[in-house]
Amino acid sequence: MSALHVVVMGVSGCGKSAVGERLAAALGLPLIEGDSFHPPGNIAKMQQGVALTDEDRTGWLAVLGRELSHHPRGAVLTCSALKRSYRDSLRAAVPRLRFVHLALSQQDALRRVAGRPGHFYPPSLVASQFEALQDPAGEPGVIAIDALLPLATVVDRALEALRE
Ligand SMILES: Nc1ncnc2c1ncn2[C@@H]1O[C@H](COP(=O)(O)OP(=O)(O)OP(=O)(O)O)[C@@H](O)[C@H]1O
Ligand SMILES: O=C(O)[C@H](O)[C@@H](O)[C@H](O)[C@H](O)CO
């Protein structure tokens, strides 16, 4: 079987961690949690309610690209991948990279993030995620799924689309 590398992407609260975990299990592939690779300075910044800049994300994306390439048989990566340039940086790391974009409105993202106590990411930053987001529709290898569907349905749709 050929390799399958998938990025579960989208704004904070869209369900990257929840979907990524289930998708990786269903595919029998390792999960790379993108948030675990942010340098401590990035986490501190977000905790303080300051949005990350392109500069803050550059090194992080390079590390994530290397992580993907360390799994030649495939992996599932959770990563916001909000801008085209970020996605292209990941695409440069492995051939035929697929993206599952979990799409939802700002209002729904805010509701999810606000209802998740104990997580480092503050609801005050959700608006900045939508300012940064460049819709990946039309780019190669992109699947968009309604993030408000039940988790099992989201995962089933992703599996179905990835088979094509
Ligand atoms: N399809 C879904 N239906 C209902 N609840 C969901 C769904 N997907 C995720 N959730 C819930 O929404 C919240 C946000 O999900 P999750 O933490 O996976 O998002 P995320 O994109 O990883 O966010 P972040 O990047 O900020 O960590 C969690 O409480 C999660 O359980
Ligand atoms: O690019 C970014 O701004 C970050 O990756 C954020 O998306 C957060 O890390 C994540 O959403 C919180 O869990």
UniProtKB/TrEMBL annotation:
Reactions accelerated catalytically: D-gluconate + ATP = 6-phospho-D-gluconate + ADP + H(+)
Keyword terms, alphabetized: ATP-binding, Kinase, Nucleotide-binding, Transferase
Biochemical pathway: Carbohydrate acid metabolism
InterPro entries linked to this entry: P-loop_NTPase, Therm_gnt_kin
Gene3D superfamilies in UniProt: P-loop containing nucleotide triphosphate hydrolases
EC number(s) on file: 2.7.1.12
Pfam families xrefs: AAA_33
Assigned protein family: Belongs to the gluconokinase GntK/GntV family.
Protein name: Gluconokinase
Organism: Caenimonas terrae
